[in-house]
Amino acid sequence: MKKYKFTILLLLTFVIAFPVITVKLVTAEQEKKARQEELAQVTDTEKEPAEAVAGTEENSTDKAGTGQADIDSTENTEDKTGIKDNETVADTEQEGTFTTEDISYFSDALFIGDSRTVGLSEYADLGDADVFATIGLSSFKLFETEVDMPGYGKETLDEVLSRKNYGKIYLMLGINELGYPHASIEKQYREVVEKIREMQPDAILFLEASLHVSKAKSDSDSLYNNANIDWLNGVVESLCDQKQTYYIDVNEIFDDGAGNLDAQYTSDDAHPLGKYYAQWAEWILTKAIVKEK
């Protein structure tokens, strides 16, 4: 009798539990199917270095235009060993285009940029050049930012470009934009170049490559790394026609031979030490373009 009661009890337990087990199995199968459908909807797109970390303009503002502390700073003056001899550096594919000039070449020049250009103005001799630069500057904020211009007070770039005709303009921006989507960066940089060309049609425009960061910085940072910087520099170079707009890349004197800012030239992994900005300015003078009269 007890045996029958046990059998009946076992059957009742199975009858009650079976729907629950079935539901769980169905639910798991549905979740698996849903994941498969979701994966099937993902299409292959052109993959670029920063796509995985770029986000959108709206959620990247703090990174890309407000003075990222670990990138855009000029507090980098520790002294270290000497720099490479410029005379051993081969010219790029534009060899024969550039010539070397003295400091007077900067007499009708305007430098535009972020903290790296601030460093040039503070530690190097730019002669009588004007400098429109501030820490944290990006192409997205370029025409709405005011900079204190000696003898004129705070001015926007529109005002600077409107009151004087420049013979040459040096533009170096991009590192603070790396928090934006690549397509947005490229579009904005192109618009900046076009506007400068429109306002200063007779000026020679030099687009400067963004300086690499050190290997330690590049390897540890998903955003500010040399793969992203190389992508950016490719965009910048593509905007140059080598007739009125020229590409110059100072990384040739600061790199370690493997595409990184050489650690001996920096103490913050992103900017040259103060004394090396003078070498930078001297190098720029070896990339001069003299128009035929």
UniProtKB/TrEMBL annotation:
Matching InterPro entries: SGNH_hydro (IPR013830), SGNH_hydro_sf (IPR036514)
Ranges of residues in domain SGNH hydrolase-type esterase: 111-274
Bias-annotated ranges (Basic and acidic residues): 37-50, 77-87
Gene3D superfamilies in UniProt: SGNH hydrolase
Region feature Disordered, mapped onto this chain: 37-95
This protein's name: GDSL-type esterase/lipase family protein
Originating organism: Roseburia amylophila
Lineage: Bacteria, Bacillati, Bacillota, Clostridia, Lachnospirales
